[in-house]
Design goal:
The structure is a homodimer. By secondary structure, chain A is α/β, with parallel strands linked by helices. The first copy, chain A, has 9 helices and 9 strands. Helices cover 44% and strands 18% of the residues of chain A. Chain A has a 7-stranded mixed β-sheet with strand order 5-6-4-3-7-8-9. At the A-B interface, helix 1, helix 5 and helix 9 of A face helix 1, helix 5 and helix 9 of B.
Chain lengths: 208, 208
């Protein structure tokens, strides 16, 4: 059996669909047409139908999608029917804010470790975790079998820290450091940099 | 004269090119081929050449791009040859971490206001700004002519707060609240949600 490889750009949109569907479910809605969903998302109905067709479609002609069924299916596709344990590296303002963030637990993400090199921070409590020294990072990540890390260290040490995480068995890194990491192709990297998002919008603001 | 409209997906990649070129300049490099640049970015040389061709190209056949020249041109295109003043709304952990963030000032972004509704936070100092009450938000934003806001309020009040920002003249919102905002098409919105980025990677982690 040959398996269809779903383009990454399609995968990138699924969490966004899921979030909006969850929002609609909260509003008490039960079904939604691809047209209504597309308006909420600022995309096209054709795009949504095409994206979902990779996984079998889920909609009936004329009646639209069952919101609960679609949420359930998207959660399965994205492997969200389990809790994912995550290590945060860097206990500065951002690392601590992320560790405190209430939005993780309700969406199946558990921050189980927080590392830093600063002796003033090591041993302090942040939310439900205690900051540990980066010296023990590899051993603890390997020991717990953690696969996902959030990187909030300064730019100068981001690459070397990411290399250490990969050595420790980390397979996915959410990188907040403002540099492009160079890592093996097998490691999944997502980059969050508010400056890049702001700059993208500044292009349009300057047009006036 | 008809102006070519540059696709938004192209614009979205320019800040990322710029960041990597700045990184290369720091490493002491002076020129770069589209091939070398593409390897650093994990994209293709053809993509980079095509993206830059919208703005005239900037490269000489055989010699590659002058890094400094390309940085200068990208900064002009993205309107980064000025300081942009930004208001942060929501002085929780994340809002405070962003207001403290050192990476803004060095890239031409100045956080000039921070608003919250919590009387315990109003009046406190965060970095170089004092938290102000949201009651005065519209007046102060209008008064200063601020066009860009970062939204870090809870999900339940994100839509209403965004509506107020738009009324006050805000034209671009970087939204950290985990909801899809419904706003006039003329308002630019970028959404940062670490959960969406993590979920996108979980798809691949579950494949093993």
């Amino acid at each position: 059996m040959t398996e269809v490889i779903v383009p990454d750009i399609v995968i990138s949109r699924l969490p966004w669909y899921l979030q909006t569907l969850n929002q609609m479910a909260k509003e008490g809605l039960h079904t939604v047409s691809s047209k209504t969903l597309s308006k909420r998302l600022g995309t096209t109905a054709a795009q949504i139908r095409k994206d979902l067709s990779y996984f079998g479609g889920f909609g009936k002609q004329g009646t639209g999608y069952s919101i609960y069924y679609l949420i359930e299916q998207l959660q399965k596709i994205l492997n969200l029917d389990q809790v994912w344990q995550v290590a945060v590296v860097g206990a500065g303002d951002l690392g601590r804010a992320l560790t405190h963030y209430q939005g993780f637990a309700i969406r199946g993400i558990e921050i189980v470790m927080l590392f830093d090199i600063d002796p003033k921070l090591v041993g302090t409590q942040v939310g439900s975790v205690v900051v540990r020294h980066v010296d023990s990072m590899e051993a603890e990540i390997r020991d717990k079998g953690i696969k996902i890390a959030i990187l909030t260290v300064p730019a100068q040490v981001a690459q070397i820290t990411a290399d250490r995480l990969v050595d420790a068995g980390i397979e996915a890194i959410l990188n907040y450091a403002p540099i492009t990491l160079i890592l093996p192709a097998s490691v999944h990297v997502q980059h969050i940099d508010p400056v890049l998002h702001l700059q993208r919008m500044m292009y349009y603001l300057g047009e006036e």
